[in-house]
């Protein structure tokens, strides 16, 4: 694993819940890992393992996808894109080893090489990010090559860069005095505000893709392509309505940031019962927290929530940045 991040002055930005975001931030994405796949059978092999229709993905686009086990439970949520001569994806570094081993289980029978990459992962975000990427890389698409790697647009004014250490040093030099350096918590906050799910090791094989809202986020799930691992469960959840959970944004005040795998309790009459699990969380310097948590999708309007480890805290659901109505 590269030690490049530890040699740079990335740090947590002091933010309150009402703080404006910096106009440009260069973010260490050391909480993510990059995997590359190359070879004649790469597309067909991954097509049979992941929920997205990878074969239909344009070279200038990226997509989220789930990698499921045979029962349709999600091993990992991936961001896939064309990279060099093959495909690459990013996911949480905490589960990368286990997920990669599972994904490669049957690759021995195909002409594809799937391996962890040593490239540096950086984020560029803020109101000046799109114009900066265009200036630095002459980007005309949402996925564009750099000198040594690839730049991937996540959403408006937020980009992920997968580059070698020399190019990472060059980017750092070019943006000196222009971009604030921030640790990965700023990227986590952006993912939270966009309600984009990221699984960590505490959440492996706990949820089907629809419980993570992947059916309504871009093209993360294809219901029209051929078979893939876990497809039967994913299809049954759609056509028979068996999914009873969804990911919701929660906010409130707490003494610590909600952590992946933490239990969220909900009120049932005068009692409290386990209601769901945290996917990711962030705590502002004024004590406000934001969390993405998987909860029942048939909640009463007056339901109350609290972290199981902070019984005096109260959390409330806030509106997602997208609709949970599946129009596919």
Descriptive notes:
This protein has 6 helices and 17 strands. It is of the alpha+beta class. It has 2 domains: 21-193, Aminomethyltransferase beta-barrel domains (Alpha-Beta Plaits), CATH 3.30.70; 210-318, Elongation Factor Tu (Ef-tu), domain 3 (Beta Barrel), CATH 2.40.30. The strands form 3 sheets. Strands 8-9-10-7-1-11 form a 6-stranded mixed sheet, sandwiched between helices. It is globular.
* Percentage of residues in strands: 25-35%
Mean pLDDT: 95
CATH homologous superfamily classification of the largest domain: Aminomethyltransferase beta-barrel domains
Distance from N terminus to C terminus (CA atoms, Å) equals 40 Å
N to C succession of SSEs:
EEHEEEHEEHEEEHEHHEEEEEE
Structural class by sheet pairing and helices = alpha+beta
The rough form would be described as: globular
Question: Over all CA atoms, what is the radius of gyration?
Answer: 20 Å
Helix content: 10-25%
In the CATH scheme, the class of the largest domain would be: Alpha Beta
Give the tags.
single chain, 2 domains, six-stranded mixed β-sheet, Alpha-Beta Plaits, Elongation Factor Tu (Ef-tu), domain 3, alpha+beta, 17 strands
